[in-house]
Structure formats: structure tokens, C-alpha cells
Amino acid sequence: MHPIRRICSKLAVAGLCALVSTAAWSQDWPGRPIRVIVPYPPGAFSDTVTRIVVEGVAKRMGKTIIVENKGGANGMLGVSEVSRATPDGYTFGTIIPAYVVSQHLYNKIPFDPENLVGVASLGSTPLVLSARKDAPFSTVEELVAYAKANPGRITFGSSGIGSSAHLNSVVFQRLTDTKMMHVPYKGSVAAKKDLMSGEIDILFDTPLSLASPGKEGQIKLLGVVSDQRMPLMPDVPTLSEQGIDTDSMTGSWVAMLAPKGTPPAILDRMASEIGAVVKDPAVVDRLEKLGVFPMYKNVADFNAFLKKEDVLWGRMVRDANVPKE
């Protein structure tokens, strides 16, 4: 046999063996408990959605999946642990838009995005604009009028510099030609606490976070950043209904990542299981009651989505004039 043909033949056999090995590996997977790292504290939006979906995946597969909370550094510490894990299909992690934003905020981050690959998206949620209960405004129109009459006096909270709440607040000011003062917190829980005590004036946060205090009259709910009202708070109008073009604003989402090098067959299997769970009517109902819309994208579609999100959030960071640290 010609040397070149001999080499090609050997390569072909090696490639076939690799494919067979990967297929066999994926069929045997999972052979032990899987862990899913949530880079935020228990009870957070990302944690709640992850646990609901993972519970369904574990039941479908008849296997154990352990959720671990590894909070810190706005999600970067948990993501870093996922990026360093062995790519054998036994470690995954969930993320929110902060994963993308952090890459535009910091000169150095504790993980390399090239060492991670998207698996699937789980769900999304719009943000809700809220105000302290004794604020001198009860609608978006009244808020804008007050802000224009008192430039710089209204304080808006956020879960941190570069967070979804911060960046959307900046866009809101641009859309309404108003000027407000940013008060960043270490997490949305602290920001909501100060909103309820009257220390800050307004806050963008998730329906899951704001629905209960809004219903109890501890805060005012002014509007939803969505093109449709939320089943969780049907009496709260959208910002669009109140004359605000929210095309340049965005909400939050939860998705799953894995270490790069995880066998494609395993990624596809996990994505397929997630897709089946988030389309289950019982799960859809459970999520919507929390103000979360199921949002499923498979491996290819989610990785394409991540690239678009990188452009979107990068632009929002630049528009907010947030200096890179």
C-alpha cells in the first residue's frame, strides 16, 4: 500500500475508534452523580430556576444530580470552578447575563471563556421597575416627570456595577432623558431591603424578587420590561404600555455551561433532557408562577445566542460608561 494511503487508513481507523468510544461513553453516561454548580447563593433567581429544571432532568434520567452553590465575585468564582473541571460530563454550571457582562467589565477574570461551552438555556425573565412605597410617584409617567423636575435626586439601586439592573437603569434614563443617582449593592437582596426601608427610590429586579413585597404593599410596582404582562402580576402594566420603547432594554436568563472538551454526545443528551423538562406543562406552570418564561435553546442555538448577548451587553456596558477594572 502507498505510504500516504497507509497513513490515511490508520487515521480513518483512529477516528472511527474515537467516534465509537465517544458513543459508548455517552451511552454509559451518567454512571455516577452529576454536579451542577450555581455561582450564586441559595434562593437567587438562577438557583431557583436551576433547581426546578435539574430536578426534572434527574427524574427523567433516573440519576442523582447534586446542585452546589458557589457564590462570590458576581458569579465568577463558581464559573471558574466549572472551567477547571474535568470535561467528563459530570460537572456543569449555570450562568446569568453577568457571565457575559463580566468579560466587558474586568481586565482580568478568574476563568477563560474559551475553556467553557454552552449546553442549553433554561428560562428567562423580564425585569420589573419598582419604587419605595412612599415615593411621590406611582406610574412611570409620574416618575419621569418627577425625575425631570428633580435631576439627580432620584436614587436607583442595583445588585452591583455592571449588573442587569444597573445597565437597564442607565438605558431607561437615556430613553426618558432623565438623570438619576446609582447606588450599587453586593447583591439584589440588599438592594431590595433598602428599597423596602425607603433608603433608595427605585429598583429594577426580577418578578420573583418583587412580586411578594409588591402584593403586600411594601413597595410599588411601576412597570414590566416586556411586551406582555406577567401572569404573576397581571395588574402591573408593561413599560411599553406606558410609552417607553423597551427594544434596547433586556431581562435576565439562566443557562447551562460545561467545561470545553465534554463529549458532544453528552452535551446533546443533557440539552435534550433539559428541553424535555422545560417544555413539560407542569414545569412551565411552575416557572410562570415565579415570573419565569421557559426558554430552551439547544447546544448550537445557545452558543450562537451567547455571541449575540456578548455584543448586546458589551454595548450596554460602553453606553453606561463603566470603566474597565
How would you characterize this protein structure?
The chain folds into 2 domains: 33-125 and 253-319, 3-Layer(aba) Sandwich (D-Maltodextrin-Binding Protein, domain 2); 142-242, Periplasmic binding protein-like II (D-Maltodextrin-Binding Protein, domain 2, 3-Layer(aba) Sandwich), CATH 3.40.190.10. It contains 11 helices and 11 strands. It has helices at residues 3-28, 45-61, 76-84, 98-105, 140-149, 164-176, 188-197, 207-215, 264-278, 281-288, 299-319, and strands at 34-38, 65-69, 91-95, 116-125, 128-132, 155-158, 181-184, 202-205, 219-224, 252-259, 293-297. The strands form 2 sheets. The chain has a 6-stranded mixed beta sheet with strand order 2-1-3-10-4-11, with helices on both faces. Helix 2 links the parallel strand 1 (34-38) and strand 2.
